[in-house]
Design brief:
Distance between the termini: 6 Å
Number of helices: 9
Strand order of the largest sheet: 2-3-1-4-5
Shape: globular
Strand content: 5-15%
Bound molecules: BIS(adenosine)-5'-tetraphosphate
Order of helices and strands: EHEHHHEHEHHHEH
Helix content: 55-70%
Oligomer: single chain
Amino acid sequence: MLNIVLFGPPGAGKGTQSQKIKEKYDLIHLSTGDLLRSEIGAKTELGLKAKKLMDQGILVPDEVVVGMIDNKLQEHKGANGFIFDGFPRTVQQAGALDNLLESHKDSISGMIALEVTKNELVQRLLKRGETSGREDDKSEEKISKRVEEYENKTKPVADYYKSQHKFTSVEGIGEIDEIFENICSAIDKLPR
Ligand code: B4P
């Protein structure tokens, strides 16, 4: 199986590139951001709790997202593989993902990290905020909070995969198709 963690700060292009990777490699796309937003849309108890945190740019608790991923892995047994978008976002989530995959006799093939400067992230997300309706895209203050959460809690996840020799970095600024080509070159080198 091909199991990819697509990594990067908020607005790095994870969602954008995941759509293309999923089609080319016939993978199941699991975005914890999308899963949480669908809970919010359905006004579930989980969604209402998550909304309060997400609107402020704060990460939701690990057990919530790990539980959602567990359900999806069960649902898609027999898939060619998965692209994990926006997950894991803490070292604890990374350990939980390894355990979940191991219970399915599987593992992460590699992490691909998109490198984008903070200034570019803020510009992209403010632009998306003009049309997305997402509360967390609406002000520079909220976007900065998300970047701060990334720096403090999420960045160490890269070291987790570096220590497993599963880390590849790809330039995330430039044309979407050009970035996609570089991601594909990195994916094609991963063990399956
Ligand atoms: P996400 O939905 O994952 O939000 P994101 O990081 O903003 O998405 P992404 O990085 O995919 O944005 P994209 O590049 O596609 O998370 C939202 C919130 O949910 C988090 O803050 C947190 O509260 C919660 N959450 C989610 N997962 C969690 C977890 N595991 N644990 C705890 N909490 C969790 O898009 C950015 C913009 O850039 C788009 O408008 C796009 O068109 C544009 N763009 C993309 N590529 C470009 C390029 N090359 N050039 C110019 N623009 C580009």
